[in-house]
């Protein structure tokens, strides 16, 4: 019985793929990898962030009480965002030229963080602090001394509510008066900092406002349950230099000894065979070259020692010094 072969044409294969689909079915057993942006730090993991969210929820409740007493009206304050950034990148991106800020710092130390509110939030808050009902004023208009004083008192109370749970390990206090514009803080470019944003809603009609806090992630480590890494032992520069030199002295290096070289055409290479004599570009008494990392470092005379090839070093290529030290090369 003759066998027959049914060949599928390209068009038929295309129709079959279109009918059954050409994509692989997803494997339900494959693990799902979480997205990870290496441009931002990951000082806090998911567990740390969960603990911070719980602690900051209590801070939000205390802030709501402060605002309620200040205005004699109900407020709802909630955590809106908790993000981590590298200080160098964050300082380039943040726009605080018009925001009102209040810094905080440890005792007798430069400021390490700040709280900020936008001009719109500033106008809305100083309006009801003064008992006015009309807040339709230009947000770019400067505050009066009285308004700055009232705003400073309110921000100080709000900041104290945030700093209270941190005070056991970090004696942080409000530092300086309220100022408009970016505060003068010194961060290392690779320092991890956290930005915390609370949303404030009033029981009265009006759009919600925000209050943001910025500080190093390390100041929140205890609150997040993150164990601080032990500080590396300090090493004197002389000890470090000595250790590096000892390590370098043990690093193996390959030294290549070259008698000489010559240049041939490809055809001449093909014509070479056993018994041919290849004339090199150096006299018989010419020195050999000791090559390290592609550079000639010494010149010497071919010799033998204990039945092995050897080289007697005659001069240093870099220093031009004469020596009679014999070096062997297998």
Task: Please write out the topology.
Elements: H1 10-20, H2 46-71, E1 75-86, H3 87-93, E2 100-106, E3 113-117, H4 119-129, H5 145-163, E4 172-180, E5 192-202, E6 209-216, H6 221-224, H7 237-249, E7 255-258, H8 266-271, E8 288-292, E9 295-305, E10 308-316, E11 326-328
Antiparallel strand pairs: 1-5, 2-3, 2-4, 3-6, 5-6, 7-8, 8-9, 9-10, 10-11
Helix pairs in contact: 2-5, 4-5
Strand content: 25-35%
Mean pLDDT: 83
The largest beta-sheet arranges its strands as 1-5-6-3-2-4
| Biggest β-sheet description | 6 strands, antiparallel
Give the quaternary arrangement of the chains: single chain
Order of helices and strands: HHEHEEHHEEEHHEHEEEE
Regions with little confidence, pLDDT below 50 for 5+ residues: 1-5, 321-330
Number of helices: 8
* CATH H-level homologous superfamily name of the largest domain: CheC-like
Count of distinct strands: 11
| Dominant shape | elongated
What distance lies between the first and last C-alpha atoms, to the nearest angstrom?
72 Å
CATH class of the largest domain: Alpha Beta
Counted up, domains total 2
Rg over CA atoms? 37 Å
The CATH architecture of the largest domain can be given as: 3-Layer(aba) Sandwich
Description:
This protein is an alpha+beta fold and 330 residues long. The protein folds into 2 domains: 46-224, CheC-like (Chemotaxis protein chec, 3-Layer(aba) Sandwich), CATH 3.40.1550.10; 253-265 and 281-330, Surface presentation of antigens (SPOA). Helix content is 29%, strand content 25%. The protein has a 6-stranded antiparallel sheet. Strand 5 (192-202) and strand 6 form a beta hairpin. The protein is elongated and about 110 Å long. The model is unreliable at 1-5 and 321-330 (pLDDT under 50).
């Amino acid at each position: 019985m003759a066998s027959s072969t049914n060949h599928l044409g390209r068009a038929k294969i295309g129709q079959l793929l279109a009918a059954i689909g050409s994509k692989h079915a997803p494997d339900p057993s494959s693990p799902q990898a979480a997205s990870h942006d290496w441009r931002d730090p990951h000082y806090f993991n998911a567990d740390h962030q969960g603990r911070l969210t719980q602690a900051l929820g209590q801070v939000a409740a205390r802030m709501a009480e402060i605002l309620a007493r200040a205005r004699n009206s109900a407020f709802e304050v909630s955590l809106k965002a908790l993000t981590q950034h590298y200080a160098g990148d964050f300082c380039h991106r943040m726009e605080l030229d018009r925001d009102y800020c209040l810094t905080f710092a440890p005792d007798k130390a430069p400021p390490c963080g700040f709280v900020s509110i936008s001009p719109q939030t500033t106008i809305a808050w100083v309006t009801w602090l003064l008992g006015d009902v009309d807040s339709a004023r230009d947000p770019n208009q400067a505050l009066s001394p009285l308004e700055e004083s009232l705003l400073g008192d309110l921000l100080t109370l709000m900041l104290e509510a945030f700093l209270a749970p941190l005070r056991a390990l970090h004696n942080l206090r409000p530092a300086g008066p309220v100022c408009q514009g970016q505060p003068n803080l010194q961060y290392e470019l690779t320092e991890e900092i956290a930005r915390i944003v609370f949303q404030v809603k009033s029981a009265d009609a009006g759009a919600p406002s925000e209050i943001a806090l910025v500080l190093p992630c390390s100041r929140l480590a205890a609150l997040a349950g993150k164990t601080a890494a032990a500080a590396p032992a300090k090493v004197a520069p002389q000890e470090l230099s000595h250790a590096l030199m000892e390590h370098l002295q043990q690093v193996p290096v390959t030294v290549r000894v070259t008698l000489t070289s010559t240049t041939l055409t490809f055809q001449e290479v093909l014509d070479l065979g056993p018994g041919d004599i290849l004339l090199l570009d150096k006299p018989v008494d010419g020195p050999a070259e000791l090559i390290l990392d592609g550079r000639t470092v010494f010149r010497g005379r071919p010799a033998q020692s204990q039945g092995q090839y050897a080289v007697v070093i005659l001069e240093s290529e870099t220093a031009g010094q004469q020596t009679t030290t014999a070096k062997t090369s297998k």
